[in-house]
């Protein structure tokens, strides 16, 4: 009986050793396979990053205001950056925010490691007269610059209540009605007429006024019916009023009465 128990104990002990050895080998094989797997991933990732890292940033520029070095610097594109993770919208936003006059027209990726940036220049469209200086914007009201004195030959907007005028951001007006009226007015007049406008007064939205070629004050009244007012104004200014004549052109009652009043000034424009 004792011999049988001893043999059984030896058998069980041997079985445990075999199980522990198999368990050890199984765990070792899993560890080695995992180690090889992660090593392969690391090598692949290293190769991927090195092969597709940005090595060259080329800037095609149509503006003398900034240098290629400035464009590359504010784009924050670095040589170790992976070209796949360089998002065009983010690059465009960084450049146009930090360099207000920059207009990023296009960004192209040339694989494996080259990025091309095409940059133009935004043009001054209007200037807002404020208590802290003159705020110049493009046609979409992006703030281009804040200057202490008038320095650009673009229409001056008077009477706008400005909340925020941070260069690189969109101009924020206190009154949405003012902004809407100004947008409608500018869109209706078009760039051709806007080039001849010296001043726009929107301090009273029921009595909007513009100064044409610094010789004719045009009273538009409210922004309502601006397309019709623009047509009759353009006809009168080009066909009925001499190019050396100044005065006041009143269109404020045109929609209600169909009448337009022009009061010439006593002095002619030289």
Furnish the topology, listing elements before pairings.
Elements: H1 2-51, E1 56-61, H2 68-75, H3 88-98, E2 102-110, E3 114-121, E4 126-130, E5 133-137, E6 143-147, E7 156-158, E8 162-164, E9 172-173, H4 176-194, E10 197-201, E11 208-212, E12 216-221, H5 226-240, E13 247-250, H6 254-257, E14 261-264
Parallel strand pairs: 1-3, 4-7, 7-10, 12-13
Antiparallel strand pairs: 2-3, 4-5, 5-6, 8-9, 10-11, 11-12, 13-14
Helix pairs in contact: 4-5
Description of the structure:
The structure is a single chain. The chain is of the alpha/beta class. It folds into two domains: 56-121, Ubiquitin-like (UB roll), CATH 3.10.20; 126-264, Rossmann fold (3-Layer(aba) Sandwich), CATH 3.40.50. The protein has six helices and 14 strands. The protein is elongated and about 135 Å long.
Task: Give the gist of this structure.
40% of the residues lie in helices and 26% in strands. The protein contains 6 helices and 14 strands.
Strand line-up of the largest beta sheet: 6-5-4-7-10-11-12-13-14
The fraction of residues assigned to DSSP E strands is 25-35%
Point out poorly predicted stretches. none
- What is the structural class? alpha/beta
Count up the helices. Answer: 6
How many separate structural domains?
A: 2
Number of strands: 14
The quaternary organization reads as single chain
Cα-to-Cα separation, first versus last residue: 136 Å
Average of the residue pLDDT scores:
89
Helix content: 25-40%
CATH architecture of the largest domain: 3-Layer(aba) Sandwich
Largest sheet: 9 strands, mixed
Q: What is the name of the CATH topology of the largest domain?
A: Rossmann fold
Outline: elongated
**Main CATH class of the largest domain:** Alpha Beta
SSE succession: HEHHEEEEEEEEHEEEHEHE
Radius of gyration: 36 Å
